[in-house]
Amino acid sequence: MWEYSDKVREHFFNPRNSGPLEEANGIGDVGSIQCGDALRLMLRVEPETEIIQDAHFQTFGCGSAIASSSALTEIVKGMTLDEALKVSNQNIADYLDGLPPEKMHCSVMGREALQAAIANYRGEVWSDDHEEGALICKCFAVDAVMIEDVVKANNLNTVQEVTFYTKAGGGCAACHEGIEEILAKVMSERAGPGEVSPPPACPATPEAPRPPSAKLTLVQKIKKIEEVLDAVRPMLQRDHGDVELADVQGKKIYVHLKGACSGCMMEAATLGGIQQKMIETLGELVQVLPSSHMPVEA
């Protein structure tokens, strides 16, 4: 489904600095297994100079999460803590010669783990401020503060980009309106007083296919949906899973996950990835839901 650079593949198949770090004096934990990604970053810092002598990681996540964590440990070794605090998620992605847009959230998680580990070393109570913001995406537990920070730091403009960087909006899509409100607020701040900022683009970006002038018939829509499923099926089958179309009800597309995909802890992420492909192909906001959510006929 996604194209990975040779460097991402190298850090995935041969991760650097993986596993516990003896005598670590700075530890940062971010994410959660329940949401699909979790990362522990461990630092050994020389007290007098505050230089990071060594860095290790342990992660639960996809190949991009492993590669991003591996890259992060290589980047920060030899830096002072103040220098490390300036490392951005884009620095991590650049070190890997780029990440697929859909996987940029892995680099964001690395940046947060670094901030948490440094705060832990300094005896500070690290706070990502997430608890201060209203919960926007319930599927992945992403709040307004995190979305706004990532939008500003990475100059994001669309709901789709926010999903790629934070995973927010990649599940049931019920939070898209809330994400659009945050985008509109940030764009207004960028424009400055007296200027009019453009409205945030919908998940169908300018590069994504646009809907035809005539509305698709149900048969045409199902054909395009099947094309998307055919495109993602080989990736799922490599992990002994599969997907098939169950039903289409308006803007809700129900799919049946099979094999290893059925009941998998990464089910929400899998459905989110399929949903983004559906949005791009159909040119409209749709929800991709498991067949178990189909309404029961009376």
Structure description:
The chain is of the alpha+beta class and 298 residues long. It has three domains: 6-121, Sufe protein. Chain: A, CATH 3.90.1010; 130-191, BFD-like [2Fe-2S]-binding domain (Arc Repressor Mutant, subunit A, Orthogonal Bundle); 218-293, Fe-S cluster assembly (FSCA) (GMP Synthetase, Chain A, domain 3). 41% of the residues lie in helices and 18% in strands. The protein is built from ten helices and eight strands. The strands form three sheets. It has a three-stranded antiparallel beta sheet with strand order 1-2-3. Strands 6-7-8 form a three-stranded mixed beta sheet. Strands 4-5 form a two-stranded antiparallel ribbon. Strand 2 and strand 3 (51-60) form a beta hairpin. The longest helix has 21 residues, at 218-238. It is globular. It starts with 5 loop residues before the first helix and ends in an 8-residue tail after the last strand.
What's the CATH class label of the largest domain? Alpha Beta
Task: Classify the fold: give the CATH topology of the largest domain.
Answer: Sufe protein. Chain: A
Tertiary shape:
globular
Mean pLDDT: 83
Compute the separation of the termini in Å: 38 Å
**How many domains in all?**
3
The unreliable regions are 202-213
Alpha-beta content class: alpha+beta
- Counting DSSP E segments of at least 2 residues, the number of strands comes to 8
Strand content: 15-25%
Largest sheet: 3 strands, antiparallel
DSSP helix fraction? 40-55%
Order of helices and strands: HEEEHHHHEEHHHHEEHE
Strand order of the largest sheet: 1-2-3
Work out the helix count: 10
**Rg from alpha-carbon coordinates:** 20 Å
Please tell me the CATH architecture of the largest domain by its name: Alpha-Beta Complex
